[in-house]
Amino acid sequence: MAAHVLPHDRVGNGDHAVLVVHGWFGDRTSFASVQAHLNRSAHSYVFVDLRGYGEAVDVAGENTVGEAADDLLATADSLGLERFSLVGHSMGGMIAQHVLLKAPERVRRLVGISPVPASGVPFDEQTWELFAGAAERPQNRRAIIDSTSGNRLPDAWLDAMTRRSVEHTDSRAFRRILDSWSGTDIHQEVDGNPTPVLVCAGAHDKSLTPEVMKATWMQWYPNAELEVYADAGHYAPDEVPLALVARIETFLSS
């Protein structure tokens, strides 16, 4: 299937372009809490909706991380972005690594926010049933969001996150891409890649923990830095937006 130019918002007019890729549970509105605090003169951020999400909810596709990477490159081409950095949250971190492998000469820097490692995510049987059932069961989505944020955030926030996820995703695409981001292993291909990488992890994340980041990302990228947020779980853009923006923009401007 041909690559697709993704719906997007462009924030800022700086020379340093940055493609921003959302996670499994949300579309580009997942980054609403950070947008007001971005340096718009230094950077030009492009927030996309992947196929099956947001404004691309009805766009058909295979719903794989490789397809998503091709779509990101097509979007960059449509905007005339020869070189750019990447920011990926959760599943978006796996997709960003596929972009890096497909076009290494175009990627300046890579930021992963609670990112899925290049090895994918192994699930035990019970956890797999919870995640696989989330496509059709909102209560599964809420349980996952609650657990990965440390079972410590308000019910109203959990309800809003769950509602946004259900309303902004196509359930079939949501289910299909789970197989891809969890079951894809490209760690041998990225091992030793010299691209500067920033990994942002939440101390309260019970899934993609700081320890997982140390055992995966920090082993495979020799120029990687790890930032751990004591007051965040899996959703740093919502939980610690100011601290997240400050750290990312310091890294991008290095």
Task: Summarize it.
With 254 residues, this protein is α/β, with parallel strands linked by helices. The chain has helices at residues 32-35, 65-78, 91-102, 125-132, 138-148, 155-167, 171-183, 187-190, 210-215, 217-220, 236-239, 241-252; strands at residues 8-11, 16-21, 43-48, 84-89, 107-113, 197-202, 224-229. InterPro entries: AB_hydrolase_1, AB_hydrolase_fold, AB_hydrolase_sf.
Detailed description of the structure:
This protein has 254 residues and is α/β, with parallel strands linked by helices. It has a single domain (8-252), classed as 3-Layer(aba) Sandwich (Rossmann fold). 41% of the residues lie in helices and 16% in strands. It has helices at residues 32-35, 65-78, 91-102, 125-132, 138-148, 155-167, 171-183, 187-190, 210-215, 217-220, 236-239, 241-252, and strands at 8-11, 16-21, 43-48, 84-89, 107-113, 197-202, 224-229. Strands 1-3-2-4-5-6-7 form a seven-stranded mixed β-sheet, sandwiched between helices. Strand 2, helix 1 (32-35) and strand 3 form a beta-alpha-beta unit. The longest helix is centred in the N-terminal third of the chain and has 14 residues, at 65-78. 46% of the residues are buried.
